[in-house]
Description:
By secondary structure, this protein is mainly β. Helix content is 0%, strand content 46%. The protein contains no helices and 20 strands. The protein has strands at residues 3-6, 12-16, 21-25, 32-36, 45-48, 54-58, 63-67, 74-77, 83-88, 94-98, 104-108, 117-121, 130-131, 136-141, 146-151, 157-161, 167-172, 177-182, 187-192, 198-203. Strands 1-2-3-4 form a four-stranded antiparallel sheet, with no helix packed on it. A hairpin with a 5-residue loop joins strand 5 and strand 6 (54-58).
Amino acid sequence: VHGLAFDKDDTLYGASLAGYSIYQLDTDTGAVSTKVGPPLGNADDVAVAPAGTLAWTVGAFSAIHALPPEGEFQVLADELPAVNSIFYAPDGRLFATRVFGGDALYEIDPAGIAEPREIARKLGGLNGFEVTADNKCYGPLFFKKNVVEVDLETGEVRDFAAGFTTPAAVNIDQTGNLYVVDYATGEVTRIRMSDGERTIVAALDPPLDNLAIDDRGWVY
C-alpha cells in the first residue's frame, strides 16, 4: 500500500500499485476488502473528497481516476506522466503532484472538464502533501530533505521544517500537529505548527511511504 486516506466516517482506504487496487481497511479488525479492483484500481495514492468521492493517481497510465459514492468511474485528468500524490482540500478543491517524472504541483478539476492548472514546478519532489482549510499546502520535498509550505495561488515555496533524510509524506491532526514520515530512517516526527517543537513519536522499520490520521488523532 503506497497511499492512505480516511473518509469522514473514519473508513481507511489504501492505494496499491502491486495489487492494482484501492482497498478498504478496517482499523479495528485488520480486515481488508477491495473497493476498486484491477486494472482500474491501479494507484499510487488515494484521496477522499468531503462529499465522499474517491480519487487516485495512476502513474502507469498518466491519469487521475475517480469514483463518486453513487456514480460511475471517471477519468479526471490524463497526460500527466508519473503523477504521484493527491489530496482533496476541505473545500473540495483537488490537487496532485508529479514527483519522479516531472516534479510539479497541479490543481485538478474535480469534474474532469478543465485542464489541470500547473501551480509550481521543480520543487524538489513534493510527495505526500496536505492542504489546510485556509488553503495552505504543506508537504515534504523528497529530494531536498525538508518540508515546505506552498502558496496555491502563486506557487511560492517557503521552508517550514528542515533536517530530514528522505521525507515522504505529511499529515496534520485536528489540534495543529504536523506529522512527517521519513522514508529512509523510518522515523515518524510530530511538529507542533504553532512553535515548531519536534518529537519523534515512533521509529519503525524503513522504508516508510505514507500515513493517515483518524478523527481520534491516531496515526496510521
